[in-house]
Amino acid sequence: MPVANAISFDTEVVQHAPDLYDYAAEVPTIDGFDSVTDDDLARYQEQGVIAIRNAWTKEEVQSALAGLDHLIAGNEPAFQNIQFRADVRDRLETLTFDERLDAARRLLYFTDYDARLKAIAHKPQLLALLERLLGAPARLFQDMALIKPPQGREKPWHQDHAYFELTPQTRVVGVWIALDPAGPENGCMRFLPGWHRRGIFSHFQLRDLQICDAEMEGLQLERVAAPLPPGGCVLFDSYIPHGTPSNFTASRRRALQYHYFTEAAQPITAAERVAIWGGEENGVAC
Ligand SMILES: O=C(O)CCC(=O)C(=O)O
Ligand SMILES: [Fe+2]
Hints:
Number of helices: 7
CATH topology of the largest domain: Jelly Rolls
Strand order of the largest sheet: 2-3-13-8-15-6-5-4
CATH architecture of the largest domain: Sandwich
Helix content: 10-25%
Radius of gyration: 18 Å
Distance between the termini: 29 Å
Shape: globular
Structural class: alpha+beta
Low-confidence stretches: 1-9
Mean pLDDT: 95
Strand content: 15-25%
Bound molecules: 2-oxoglutaric acid, fe (ii) ion
């Protein structure tokens, strides 16, 4: 399924307001899939997000990183879905391996090209948990790798459902997996717990496809951050507003993001998506 917009990276990086991602609390972490209780499932329905540490082992994280390096190196010629930093796009063939690693920003739809990355998405304990959350067997429909380098740009506040060509009723769970330590300074996820129950926010093409900043300002006391060690993850409802600030550290923040629905998922057209989620297209002011 196509994503709604193509993002360009590192061009005209516009800084966000310095306090747009300030937060008051952290998402509590559950230790491993086997520790998830019925109370945690109830918390997911109530808050729209739960976090699990030690969800994938060090070995699994290493295998995922090796899989990404393999794809970024260009070792699977049939796989072309890598977005690189804008200034190198017209001279990719001249880059060394290290330069390619440095310039890669986002990979999409790669699970059919690397068995290691596919295995991460289909870990049986994850699929069992997703089935408990969705009430039916989970199907992977989108995979992404998100590389936020030092100085890397923000991902402004948004609802993932705004990007999908799926009916508003289709239930979707996102799984965001840290491959490097993800902390407040290098762009770990921020959420507005409970806000997945507030319905549809119009999305505008501003610094990215996003919710109007004015709607997301002044909410420090409601926001939470989800710092995670490698192998930790957040599971979140596709209606929960979330975002990540710029990376203010010298360390790269790599993550995987998988999205799941069930066989009940219903597609819509691109025009229907805009009619439901669009801002400026529908005359909504920001
Ligand atoms: O990894 C990030 O910075 C956030 C990614 C995200 O929320 C998305 O791609 O929908
Ligand atoms: Fe997102």
